[in-house]
């Protein structure tokens, strides 16, 4: 199980908004707040760590993209994200300009 963290770290990639749109339409994109470790979230989801996941949802640290966020991303063609696929989800975190 200790390899999971390393595997997920290796799987983190950069993505453009256009690439993510299809996943948003399938309702599988989860936005991870800046300051929260993308790998930690991936490990928690892969291990079905309900306690951590519910805490982050409650603190609004992970959420589905809001209409406002998507409007901003649609207007900024240069927006990039760190992306991590943890089936069935695509975890994304905005890359600060």
Automatic annotation (TrEMBL):
It comes from the Bacteria. Pfam families: DUF2288. This is DUF2288 domain-containing protein. It comes from Crinalium epipsammum PCC 9333.
């Amino acid at each position: 199980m200790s390899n999971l963290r390393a595997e997920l770290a290796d799987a983190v990639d950069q993505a453009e908004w256009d690439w993510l749109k299809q996943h948003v339409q399938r309702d599988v994109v989860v936005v991870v707040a800046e300051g929260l470790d993308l790998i930690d979230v991936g490990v928690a989801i892969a291990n079905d760590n309900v306690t951590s996941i519910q805490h982050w949802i409650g603190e609004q640290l992970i959420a589905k993209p809001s209409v406002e966020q998507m409007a901003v991303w649609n207007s900024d063609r240069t927006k990039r994200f760190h992306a991590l696929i943890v089936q069935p989800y695509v975890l994304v975190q905005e890359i600060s300009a």
